């Protein structure tokens, strides 16, 4: 159970970190088309004080996930390819994973259409909160992961 | 109908801890707890493994029971 809690929590943190990272890139992305001086292209400026802590946290979270892996004999490359939340230890855990995955799928089926509603006000939303789409996607992914985590714990303790 | 079992009684007869028994049948201790509580119905493969470990016929360990309304 510990590995599912750790890995799912790390995944949620990473979704939002990635949304924050993409948002910072988006904020500084400059696209120019037929510019008299620069022509056509784009320019990205990364603010290191913002990007570096994100990279550091992402590395830290990955290392934490690796240190808490179930199979201590697995190497980093083996661990990074497999998904820790699916590394079931016996048939009962496989059944639990199946049930939790079903709950997560149902959550996606309801949260994704629900996400379409705020997109009705997309123009206003993007004006007030330009990075809204990135955080909206991170929220949907997090809700699916969170429901997976809660369902897993529920069936595990049953 | 519900599949009940006598795993807890048989395990106690043999003086195995839940941990030891879990290792013998290749599952986690939490699965042994669920089995003994009757909240988890094992696969046929696991049931046969349990029967082998206890050296008893499978029907001595697992039996069908009417579910109380």
Give a description of the structure.
The complex is a heterodimer of chains A (158) and B (69). Chain A is mainly α and 158 residues long. Chain A has helices spanning 2-28, 48-67, 76-81, 91-116, 122-128, 132-157; strands at residues 29-35, 39-44. Chain A has one domain. Chain A is 71% helix and 8% strand. Chain A has a two-stranded antiparallel sheet with strand order 1-2. The two termini of chain A are 13 Å apart. Chain B is mainly alpha-helical. Helix content of chain B is 57%, strand content 12%. Chain B is built from five helices and two strands, in the order E-H-H-H-H-H-E. Chain B has helices spanning 7-13, 18-25, 29-37, 44-54, 58-61; strands spanning 2-5, 62-65. Chain B has a two-stranded antiparallel ribbon with strand order 1-2. Chain B is globular and about 35 Å long. At the A-B interface, helix 4 of A face helix 3 of B.
Features:
heterodimer, A: 158 residues, mainly alpha, two-stranded antiparallel sheet, 6 helices, 2 strands, B: 69 residues, 434 Repressor (Amino-terminal Domain), two-stranded antiparallel ribbon, 57% helix, globular, DNA binding (chain B), Cro/C1-type_HTH (chain B), Lambda_DNA-bd_dom_sf (chain B), Putative HTH-type transcriptional regulator (chain B), DNA-binding (chain B)
